[in-house]
Design brief:
It contains 12 helices and 9 strands. The chain is of the alpha+beta class and 335 residues long. It folds into 2 domains: 99 residues, Phosphorylase Kinase, domain 1 (2-Layer Sandwich); 224 residues, Aminoglycoside phosphotransferase (APH), C-terminal lobe (Aminoglycoside 3'-phosphotransferase, Chain: A, domain 2, Alpha-Beta Complex).
Amino acid sequence: MCLNALEPALISMGLMTPGQSITAEALAGGISCDVALVTVGTRRFCVKQALPKLRVEADWRAPLERSHTEVAWMKLVGGLDPDWVPMVLGEDRHRHLFVMEYLAPETYPHWKDRLAEGHTDIGFAAQVGARLVRIHGETAGREDIARDFRNGPQFHALRVDAYLLFTAAKNPDVAPIIRSMAKNLGVAHIALMHGDIAPENILCGPDGPVFLDAEAACYGDPAFDLASCLTHLLLKAVWRPEHKDGYAECFKALKDAYLSDAAWDAHAGLERRTAGFVAALLLASIDGKSPVDYIASETDKTFVRDNAKAFLSDSLSHLDELLERWTATLSDRQM
């Protein structure tokens, strides 16, 4: 991130004055953006700027306007509860750049890091489910929000194509199932999705979960959000099998908290769609455009791939059954 571009952007937002000292330190961010800790005088900000081409091996591009989508999502959720997202301090739409408050990792560690260390707090997992379903419930059936987040091309590039269709092309034996799922997701019109709910995009704040990285937000099927987070909890058990029981308990706590308050959708259909997305996203975590970096060995990849395909072929419709089969195969693997 270039200081020559940052200075005029921050000045235009009223976050610095000409001549003030400024430093920028690159932060470990996602694959889709540059993220920096910027210090102006005694103030510190987090600055995020979208990249035209994502940092993956595959050729993956997405509209830069996703930066504005993320800002809009954070402002909407901040209106529900300001503790659930970082505060947006300014935006430069011309540079596809925005500034938010900096939440120091000493106080706001990433949930992914906590899970990797074996801290499987089921109370926190339940909070994630409760906050996520509140966001979905508050936006379900809202045509005004649907108009504001009519981001189909962005969501297609960031999720439908990169995760589902790319994965289907590499797995012809289950491709028809995944393509049908992608088609239905592309036309869903139920509530506002975050688009990338995962432990690496959730901070463990003093007042509970804080959500980050909503650049894939779109009005669509919220089952995709629930499935995304549940998928990562299953994958953690392959990565850190010594904590698999704790991850399973987090899976149940998050799922139960979510489903218990999802009054805007028939539970049978919601759970069926979520289970299908979990199976597809497990496969996409290995064969999509952005495979998870912590499933590295071919043995582990084959384990995830084989189970995902079995779940897809069997059309599982209950999350408890899916979790039971996953944990059983993990246990058999360790014997």
